[in-house]
Amino acid sequence: MNKYFLLLLLGILCSCDEHHSENQSNDEDLSNPEFQSETKEEKLVSLYKDSVIPLFKDIPDVNPPQEIHINAEDLNIDAGAAFDYLEVSQGLIDLENEAIQLFALAHEVAHMATLPQAKIFNLPAAIPEGNSTNDYQKAEYLADLIAIHLIHLKKTEKFKLIQGDFEKLQEIFGGEVFSHPSGQKRISSMKLYIEDCSSKTEALAFKERFLAIWNMD
Q: Cα-flanking dihedrals φ and ψ of residue 79, to 5°?
């Protein structure tokens, strides 16, 4: 009788040990980053660091911000860059369109690349103001151009997705205000660059469009 009781006890202990090992394995899986899905915020940060920052590595004197601030109260699709941080809206984080997120982030960093790029083209250190197009509006056109050009060169598949979403992007841009051209004008400007790329090199199409915007009336 004692022998059978001992065997039963050993069986229970073995079963408990296996159950403990299985639970421990499940706990390890849950703690393994490979088994955890990224949040929307983490995905946007990864997109910025892995895809946006490398776009600007070949432009001298451009140091994209490393720190990202989230404006959780802003549900519009928006972003803004300073020299030490990038601010993104909750609306941009929640947007279920990675290609447009990529463009929006690249556009903000492109503002920081505009004057270094102008220097490469031997242009003055300030965007000139035209009679009909002020320097703020020119800055938006130029940032759009730099962003779409770099994505065109280095992220071809994303470029095609953005091009297919121009109507959505125009809607996001909205109407004309003092500091921003209308979405329709901004999309038209990018389309001129894209059309020129069909008959010229991307570098020449970019340079000519950059100069055309710079010298807008």
A: -160, 160
Question: Got the DSSP string for 35-103?
Answer: GSPPPHHHHHHHHIIIIIGGGGTTSTT-----EEEEETT--SS-EEE-SSEEEEEHHHHH-S-HHHHHH
Length of the chain: 217
- DSSP for 105-134, written as a single string: HHHHHHHHHHHHHHHHTT--SSPPP-SSS-
| Predicted pLDDT of residue 207 | 98
Burial of 178 (0-12, 13-18, 19+ CB in 10 A): exposed
∠ CA(138), CA(99), CA(184), 5° rounding? Answer: 40
Residue 109, both tokens:
């960093």
Span 90-123, pLDDT tens digits:
999 999 999 999 999 999 999 999 999 999 999 9
Taking the CB of residue 158, how many other CB atoms lie within 10 A of it? 20
How far apart CA 189 and CA 169 sit, in angstroms, is 13
Q: How far apart are CA 129 and CA 136, in angstroms?
A: 8
